[in-house]
UniProtKB/TrEMBL annotation, chains A, B:
Stored Pfam families: ROK
Chain positions covered by the region annotation Disordered: 1-22
Leader sequence segment: none
Protein's name according to its UniProt entry: Transcriptional regulator
Protein source organism: Subtercola boreus
Annotated Gene3D superfamilies: 3.30.420.40, Winged helix-like DNA-binding domain superfamily/Winged helix DNA-binding domain
Amino acid sequence: MVLASVPRRLSPGVGNSNDQTRRHNLSTVLTFLHHGGPQSRAQLTGLSALNRSTTGALVAELVELGLAYETEPADSGRVGRPSPIVHANGKVVAITVNPDIDAVTVGVVGLGGLLHHLVRRETDAVPTVGASIRIVQEVLDGMRDEIATEFRVAGVGIAVPGLVNSRDGVVALAPHLGWRDEPVAEPFAAALGFRAAVANDAALATVAESIFGAGRGVQDLVYLNGSASGIGGGVLAGGVMLRGSRGYAAELGHTLVNSSGIRCHCGKRGCLETEVNLGLLLQVLGRDSAGLDEVDALIAAVPDARPEIERQLDVLALAIGTFVSVFNPESIILGGFLGSLYEADPARLRASVNAASVVGLADPVRLERARLRSRLLTTGAAELVFADLLADPAGTVF
Amino acid sequence: MVLASVPRRLSPGVGNSNDQTRRHNLSTVLTFLHHGGPQSRAQLTGLSALNRSTTGALVAELVELGLAYETEPADSGRVGRPSPIVHANGKVVAITVNPDIDAVTVGVVGLGGLLHHLVRRETDAVPTVGASIRIVQEVLDGMRDEIATEFRVAGVGIAVPGLVNSRDGVVALAPHLGWRDEPVAEPFAAALGFRAAVANDAALATVAESIFGAGRGVQDLVYLNGSASGIGGGVLAGGVMLRGSRGYAAELGHTLVNSSGIRCHCGKRGCLETEVNLGLLLQVLGRDSAGLDEVDALIAAVPDARPEIERQLDVLALAIGTFVSVFNPESIILGGFLGSLYEADPARLRASVNAASVVGLADPVRLERARLRSRLLTTGAAELVFADLLADPAGTVF
DNA sequence: GGTAAAAAGTTACCACACACAACATATTGC
DNA sequence: GCAATATGTTGTGTGTGGTAACTTTTTACC
């Protein structure tokens, strides 16, 4: 008999008791609904590998908790008694906040991923934490009735471009916003009266793409996001987000790609983000700045930009080559202007990645552009709020 | 209220029932014993967060299964009734096999990590699978009585330097042994009559150092091993071994360190293992080959080797710098000749790593030499066997 | 239209897991 | 020798999911 493989979990963990079993099973069912959309009770039974009667009880409890509801069976066309469809309750919502240099975007996202509202409020100056809170208050004020009568707010999720300590809700450094050692979650919670959480935007984007985007169903992926502020990313390894000992893992923009390169603002030389960046791209496109939506159009419109695009693609491939041998992912997902670069010449990136990887190792790796676009950060920030609810549906009060 | 942080597990998983709770708890207790050594029942109660009576029942079941035994309480010196000491049963053993270019090493390791026997049998030629099996049979024949009367063999664990598909027990490629698409676990199991498993040696070394060596208690670490055949490694992320979608993750020797470097046998340019390697080191040490134990002595004895040592350390630091921003580990553990290199000038590596990392990110990262030395692979291969037993103590029959 | 087969909901009952509490036991400290 | 403390032991209770029998609702076919 052949045994399994290299041990996976090395640390012992703690004991489980009966209530934890129930919690786990409730969590499992609700997570299926949230990630997989409405499903019949019979499907849930199959997916969870639980008994028919158990699934029934779990769904009943979720309905009781107001987290799910059942509707008439769909016409399956198959023989046998039809199974009622179970839905995650989209009226349970997360408020999402995404502060940017020139705007604050506020969203209302329902359980199950339904986007109720998405409002972008431009600002005169780079928003402070206080200003962001005021904008959110204004937006929520505008939908006061709806929130009071229709929605149940699970909390506020804030996506910040910078180094964030999610544990205590403090932004260590967000260079573009000028935030430094700034408590964020606490003041939001205090001002709005909801639970609040803050996290790095690239990490949340990874979560969003994993659940609802190009990474659906994939257990091992690398997400790379290119923005005006540099290259960030996130890694899903074995279905688990890579965090590192202090939560600063997946700083993928500082991967070495050019050992004789120029010095990066991080102190190293030849980092990915000094070689592949939006500034250099916009320069050859003849623009000072551009929204990410415009970049695609510009790339198509300016043939002279070709050499620079190809250079950036080739350098990007070097970093991806390292990621391939380090993570052996199933998929590499490119967001922001990296998605535009990819779109400009998918074949070239594919060829360069294969050349920059251990022979054969990159062949089965999918290269893809991120799918969620404008909904990316809102979806990710909502996951931040829903995480607690999904982990313990019965125990989370809000 | 401030919510936790970025969601970790993204996929829903499956449901749990009562027997799984029991299995999990048995596994938890046995794993504590195996990793943490003999402990009192009271300590186990504390660690597992289970009730006193439950711990009692679990230990009783483990004793019943022959996987643990209890001894008289130690003199704690504290007030209160003394608690009996529970031990993992070291008579439950794994047979370990480590084929090398010029020898096959066979070990007998007990649950709890006790090394009963370690035998190295030199070979005239590079051993084939068949030859390895014959050597193991000879060695086991020599201790036939002991095995029949004293030990209970849980299985055979084989550590192979090469690309291994642990799932089906086939070695895809072990260049130094000349094995290619070679079924290994199956023939071992058939010939010896025990369950058998095979895995990559560097991955097993990572496991061993994590549990019994320099990485004890650490949840995030990078292990880098340098041998004659190149640089391999393993990564523990959040207490879980990094595996990748096909099990080929952590090919750390092929991290880019020199973008104008020479071509590596893997097809890329400027890989870590083309720049940092034992061959180049031995050259300046004036030797054709040397056991790893000799390298330390040689380094101390040949001052002229200094420039090459420093060059290799500096290049190694570049790779570590990338690993620091990618994994944000708590500890980097260096084994094989990389351990010797480190030992030659720890301060230099520390300085180079700091310079090659995002400012401040490397400061809290420990750099350490691997601790297990000659026991490394035997311990790792034994873990391969014990993994199943630890995961399901009551369900594993052997 | 009626009947059989299939699939799934429902319900009552069971096995078993851990917690809890009361009690027994073994130690220290005074 | 007694109180305090910690722990083992035992019996009881709550809650978990599984099981099996029954019911309901559908399709397929005659």
